[in-house]
């Protein structure tokens, strides 16, 4: 059998076996090159993940030193946010974003002075304005890290309110990304049930009643219901 190579009308006889051998050699070479590229890509991804983890840990350590309450609050919020997200049918990839976003959601408070964060009394209007800037500051802190992209909506939108009265952008209803709506509910519950220097925490049952009261005004009703169901699962009876 004569095989004519494409584009070479003057080529002489060429055996099928020879052609197959050349193709096999090319395929083996391609496989080696792809394997090398894959290993290099995996190494780069591993190095990027390690660098990102180091950045996250640095942020957490800095925030914990700056404000011990926020450090402990973050841990509790992460636990309850994950439980709620599972009931909202978040897939594994989105659950990873919940883990990261809940840890970093208050990172912008690093820019707020210790005297405000640890003030043993209610804040003045000016001090409250300083606090209100922390979602935008936090977003600016992480927006240049591609590996932290999944955390951005948690950081920026967790103080938006269902009725549009929140901050920093005054978004309303479904215009608020689900990440912000989720964290707003969990954040509100933990804030109510935590002891602060200027007031004791509310009992859990009372905090749940308050969530129901503001459901549909400050908070997404669907997320409130999912959170309460998650809380019941997390809290043993009695």
From TrEMBL:
Protein name, per record: HD-GYP domain-containing protein
InterPro entries the record matches: HD/PDEase_dom, HD_GYP_dom
Domain HD-GYP: 48-238
Gene3D superfamilies in alphabetical order: Hypothetical protein af1432
Source organism: Deinococcus aquiradiocola
Stored SUPFAM superfamilies: HD-domain/PDEase-like
